[in-house]
Amino acid sequence: MVLVCIAVTVEPQGVFIHPFKKNGKTEIELIKIEPSLDFDVHNESMFRSPESAKFEFPLTKADIQWLNSLFVLPAKNERRVRKEYRTLSEEERETFHRAINALKHDKSVSLNKYDLLANIHSRPSSNSAAHGGPAFLGWHRVFLLMMENALRQVEPSITIPYWDCTMDAHMTSPAQSAIWSQHFFGNGLGVVDDGPFANWTTPFGFGLLKRSVSGQRRLITKQDVARLMEHAYLGNISYPYAKADYNLEQLHNNVHVWVGGLMKNIEIGAFDPVFYLLHSFIDKIWEDFRRKQILSGIDPTRDYPKFYGRSSHAPLAPMGLAKLTAIDGISDIWREGILYVRQPDCRNVLHQCNSDFLKCDNDKSECVSKTRDEYQTETEASSAMSDGAIKRGLLKQKTGFFVNKSNSPMSISVFTQLRVDNSSVTQRKKSRKDRLHFDVYKKFGQKDWTMGLSRMKSLYRAFQFMKNITLSKLPVKKNLNLPNG
């Protein structure tokens, strides 16, 4: 057999291909040529210099014991539901933030538990199969599960939410998104000095946690995801051959650079918590892709590309995590028990996005993030309206719909039921029935409120949006003395 080497230029990469005969058929294999990675996000010189030893510090017995405890799969019949970050309840969000900070402050291991795990992503001995090839998605799926297991050691109910950045990408100014506020990631420009991760220090001399959102590149869009879903195989959407506009790893690289700070250099990006919520979203996109493969008759557990590019992405190359190999990452065992809730959308009767931090783009029936100012203004207005109503004595004890003297409906989605005492005001839990009354009023106007409620009941029955409510028993308020509109 004659060895034939063909130089193929695939910008910005180059490979050599070796064709050969096997069982009467012509096949090809890749000759080991290491293509360069995306230079803006992979600072490989950082890991080839003498300084790289700082990432490979010797692990203590306690380090190894704790890291090994994270290699566990969800228990049989366990369901871990991962939601979009902004659809978490306030309690869920605060619990998630507390757990991350608990890891950050747990110094029972080297560095602390958060940074020790993040350092796995930085260690050259662990991350060789993490970037620049088809093992990227599987490696990060395993790594994401390790972080989720670490958080569940603090709070057993936690799952890692995902950040659907497509809802920010469609904003006029994504840097103004409410996601970059004290309620979520904290500020996106400069040192992070508000929110749950304020004043975090990062190891290895990187200083305080910093970001520079919207400085370079862009976020993933819904169009990017749609183009990616048009393809059939993992090799079609991965390095080394996928084009940038449907290469899932490249699209993810863009978001790293867009966030900036430590996230800009991918190998050290895990020291910023944004990393995990971004990768939860990337993993969700891949899971949606795999489900589409199954519907098309393709087995995703056998879909490892023959042409994998970098030698570290060869099927049997060490993954760098435990004793796993690169091809182990496409196994179904890593997704068992894990369920992603679909992204919020407003293709429903009420055009709602199920979050106070999202709004509906009615032209596209798509949810987009509110800006920080929009959320703050609405919160202040709701608070002022409620305070004013209490002072004027217009608030009643019964649940239902109320109108103040200025003809403005009170937002029952903020305060559904209040009891006015001499000494205190007690806020009770939101009621979906009360929200239905208020939302019907908003949609159908003041004159047709009763008719609108009847029509809305029929629509809800048809689409089964209110499965947990007995709609036939909902009271239809009469004689509300609604103002003429």
TrEMBL record:
<dbReference type="InterPro" id="IPR050316">
    <property type="entry name" value="Tyrosinase/Hemocyanin"/>
</dbReference>
<protein>
    <recommendedName>
        <fullName>Tyrosinase copper-binding domain-containing protein</fullName>
    </recommendedName>
</protein>
<feature type="domain" description="Tyrosinase copper-binding">
    <location>
        <begin position="131"/>
        <end position="148"/>
    </location>
</feature>
<dbReference type="InterPro" id="IPR008922">
    <property type="entry name" value="Di-copper_centre_dom_sf"/>
</dbReference>
<dbReference type="GO" id="GO:0016491">
    <property type="term" value="F:oxidoreductase activity"/>
</dbReference>
<dbReference type="InterPro" id="IPR002227">
    <property type="entry name" value="Tyrosinase_Cu-bd"/>
</dbReference>
<feature type="domain" description="Tyrosinase copper-binding">
    <location>
        <begin position="272"/>
        <end position="283"/>
    </location>
</feature>
<keyword id="KW-0479">Metal-binding</keyword>
<dbReference type="GO" id="GO:0046872">
    <property type="term" value="F:metal ion binding"/>
</dbReference>
<keyword id="KW-0186">Copper</keyword>
<dbReference type="Pfam" id="PF00264">
    <property type="entry name" value="Tyrosinase"/>
</dbReference>
